[in-house]
Amino acid sequence: MKKLLFVLLVLGLASFLFVGCLPTTPTEGEGEGEGEAEICPVVTVTSQVAVGGKNYIKAGSQTITVTFAVPTEPVSVYVGAGLRPPPLEDVEVVMYANADKTVYTGDFKFGDYNLDCGEAYIYVETCDTCEPCKYPYTVDGVIPDTELEVSASACDCGGCQISFTSEVETSPCNPDEGLCWDDCSGIAGWSFAIYDQNPYDECCDMSCVEPIYTCTGVDPFCPVECVTSCLDECDDQGMMELYVILTMWDMVGNENVEGAMILVDCDSCEVVSTTPIDSNCVDPLIE
After folding, report:
1. Among the ranges given (2-11, 65-74, 109-118), the one the predictor scored with the smallest mean pLDDT
2. CA–CA distance from 247 to each of 89, 174, 187, 203 (Å)?
3. Which end of the chain is more exposed for a tag (fewer CB within 10 A), N or C?
4. Quick check: 135 pLDDT over 60?
5. Quick one: DSSP state of residue 232?
6. Distance between alpha carbon 72 and the CA centroid of its chain, in Å?
7. What is the secondary structure of 25-67 as a DSSP string?
8. pLDDT tens for residues 10-34?
9. Angle at the Cα of 259 (from 258 to 263), degrees rounded to 5?
10. DSSP 88-134
C-alpha cells in the first residue's frame, strides 16, 4: 500500500512538471508581436534608388539607417567589398541609436574605392545573427552626358527657331541611335535653359537672370531634343547671341551641367559659331 501511494505521488509530481512546460495561449493583446521580428533589419541609404533589381547609391557622403523591429544592442555596421570576416577594404561605420535601440544611423562616404559603378556590400552584425546580414549596393559616381548638334531655321512670321539634338550614330544593329548615355544607374532626365545674356555672375549664381526659353525631357531620356519657339533677340548688327545651359541628371541625382554661347545670323537664321561660355561655372556644351 505504501508503495502504491509513493508511485501515485511521483506520478502526480511529474504531471505538474509536464504541465509547467506546456506552452500557454496568451490572452488577447498579451505577447503580440514578441519574437515575430526578422533577425535581419531593414537597411536604407539616403540616396538609394532601385533600378533593374539593383540598389544604386550616389557617390559621396550618405546616411545609412538600420531599423530593427525590436530593441537590439550591440549593433555593428560595415561597408566593404568582400566576404566576412572583413578584409582590409571593409570599414566599420560609427552608428548612433535612438532611445529604444531600434533605429541606428551613421554617415559614410561611398565611392572612395569603387566610384565607377562598383558593387559591394553593407554588413550588419548583432548578437542574434550567426552570420552578418548582407545588403548589396552599387556606387554611382558617373555623370550622364550627350553629344549635341545645333541648327537654326527661319520662322514664317519672323525670327529664328533654334534646334538642339543629340548626335545620331547609325549602325546595322542600332539604326539612328541617339548619343546620350549614363553607364551606371541610367539617365533620369534633362533640361535646357536659354538666355539672352550670360546667366552666371562671379559666384556662379543664376537666380537674378530669367531664361527666355526652357524645355525638359524625362521620358524617353534619349534622344535629347529641344526646339525653341521663334526667337528674335537680334542686336544692332543683326546677330542673336544666345547662352544655352543643358542640365542632365541620373537616377541617383548626379548632375552634369554644360553650356555654350550660340551666335545666330538673324537674316539667314544660320548658326555662325558655338563657343564655350566665358565662365568657370560651367563645362563646354558643344566642343
Report:
1. 2-11
2. 35, 26, 11, 18
3. N
4. yes
5. -
6. 29
7. PPPTTSSTTTT-S-SS-EEEETT-EEETTEEEEESEEEEEEEE
8. 444 444 333 333 333 334 444 443 4
9. 155
10. TT-EEEP-EE-TTSSEEEEEEEETSS-TEEEEEEEEEEETT-SS-EE
Structural domains of the chain sorted by starting position, each given as residue range(s) with its CATH number in brackets: 42-140 (2.60.40.10), 145-284 (2.60.40)
Residue with cell 535646357: 192
Mean pLDDT of 133-162: 92
Q: How far apart are CA 263 and CA 275, in angstroms?
A: 9
Q: What angle do CA 152, 158, 163 make, to 5 degrees?
A: 20
51, 88, 58, 285: which is closest to 186 by C-alpha?
51
pTM confidence score? 0.77
Residue found under cell 552634369: 256
Instruction: Using CA atoms of 204, 210, 211, 216 in order, give the dihedral in degrees to the nearest 10.
Output: 80
Q: Grid coordinates in use for 136?
A: 548589396
| Coil vs helix vs strand at 16 | helix
Strands 54-58 and 133-140: parallel
Residues counted in the chain: 287
Measure Cα distances from 270 to 16, 35, 152, 273 in Å.
100, 74, 6, 9
pLDDT (tens digit, 9 = 90+) per residue, 169-190?
666 665 555 678 888 999 999 9
